[in-house]
Each structure stands twice: as structure tokens, then as C-alpha cells.
Amino acid sequence: MTIVSAVFSSASGGSSGAAMSVLCLMSTFFQALAQVIREAMFRDYSQYAEKHGYKNKKLNVFAVGSSNNTFGIIWVFPVSILIELSRTSDNVLDVMGEGFQTLLHAQGAMPAFVVFMVINVCFNITVFLLVCYGSSLLTFVCFKLSVPISAFMSLISWPLIGADTITWFEWVCLVVILAGVIIFRHGNGIRDKLEAENERLDETHNKTIPKAIICFWPIFRHRKPAREDDDPNKGVAINTAWCSPSFLSHKGSKIASETESQMTDVESEGKTFEAQLDDPVRES
């Protein structure tokens, strides 16, 4: 995708037309696919480690990051050569040589490059940690924060590039994306609790409380039994705004208290009936 973008940019003189917009959307697909593959890798290792009884159930993030950077170094030179071949007719090796000369001898170039490398390595490690302990979807959503945060950071006067102003639209984008990340994470938390509640109901064989049908928050559902005595998990699925762990536990305690109250009434009625039977016997 980098090579194709370089070709489009060279052909259009660097303009941002419809073709470049479509290309950016296509590159987002590959970025999302990369996060899904990473999550699958972490999950597969966890299952493998659990199966073979390994002490460390999580794949080492630093080992994954090191292998990722190693293969990145292997790939960067041929990809860079192909990009330069698509952009210019000059000798690619001469162009790369001039770039290294600038890096080594230009004022402030090497410190800036070292700072970039440190931040880039920390960024990659953070991404792997987020995929390992979160999810690929959460990582992809968090990636959307990069553009508005970059605009916000541009307010600072940086060396070499200086400072810049941002528009009100970029502030709105930052607020909307932050709200989306927070809501997404909150929905994941509720989903985890509902899954744990469903597992608990399966372990206890409790048929009085309907299990949640988990789709995505806040559209969680539970089943409504066709008749009062039927299993609620075999009824018709209905939407409900109260399908949450707290509601299920409250409903469970309410049902338990009603059942206990009914048992108490039955026991008291039984004792009254026994007393009525004893009275004629005593009179006789």
C-alpha cells in the first residue's frame, strides 16, 4: 500500500483527490487486519500454553516486539528502494547515500532520529500490550485517536517543525473519538460481566433466571418464557434495557426471596392444618 500511495502521489503531483481517499480507506483495512492477526496470535499461544501446562500463559510482549522490529529492519530497505524507484528516475542508492549523509552530519538530525526511534519502539510495545490484554478492535479504535492528538500536540513549539494552530473541527473530532473509546470499553466491561453471569447460571443449573443473549452493548437481550413454568432460556428473545449483571443479580435475589416467602407460607399453612387435626383428637 505504501508503494501504491507513492505512485498515486507522484502521478497526481501530491494532491489529495478521490483516489488518495480511497487508497487511505484501503490501507485502513490492512491495518485492522494486522491487529486481528496479532490478537489471534496471542490467543492461540494462551490456548497452547494452557494445554501444555506452561507457567506463562501470556506471550511475551517484548519478544513479539523484538521479532516485529527485526523483520521490519529486513523489509525496510527493499521497500524503500521500491518506493524511490516509483517516485524518481535517479539512482536509488545515491539518494539513500545522501540521506544517510544528512542523518550523520546535519545539525540536529541524529538526536531527532534517536528520539523518534525511542518513541516508535515504545509505541509498538504499547500496541502489543493493548492487543494482548485488550482486543484488536479496541486497539483499532484507539488508533483513531492519533490524528486529533497529533493536531493537539502541534500546538507545542517543537524543534525543527515549530508550532501550528488547530481548528474547532479537530477539537470536536478528539472529543467524539474519546467518547467512543470510553463507551466501547464500558460496553466490553458489561459484556464480560454478563458472560461470567451466564457461566455461573450454567454451573448452578439455575432455570429461574434467563441468561443474557450477548450481541453488543447496549443491545443485550434475554429470553421471555412462553409460560410461567417454562425454562426462560428456551423462550422468545426480547430486547430489554435492564439486561445487566446488577439487574440479573437483583432479579435472582428477588426470585429467591419470593420462593422463600412462598415456602414459609406453605410451612405455616401446614402447621395450621396439623394443629386443626390435633384439636379433634384431644377433644375426643
TrEMBL record:
Quick one: where's region Disordered? 253-284
Swiss-Prot/TrEMBL keywords: Membrane, Transmembrane, Transmembrane helix, Transport
Where in or outside the cell?
Membrane
Q: Does the keyword Membrane apply?
A: yes
Which residues lie in Polar residues bias regions? 256-265
Protein topology in the membrane: Multi-pass membrane protein
One cellular component term (GO) for this entry is: membrane
* Keyword Membrane assigned: yes
Q: Which residues cross the membrane?
A: 18-38, 59-83, 103-130, 137-160, 166-184
Q: Which family does it belong to?
A: Belongs to the CRT-like transporter family.
Name recorded for this polypeptide: Uncharacterized protein
Q: Which organism is it from?
A: Perkinsus marinus (strain ATCC 50983 / TXsc)
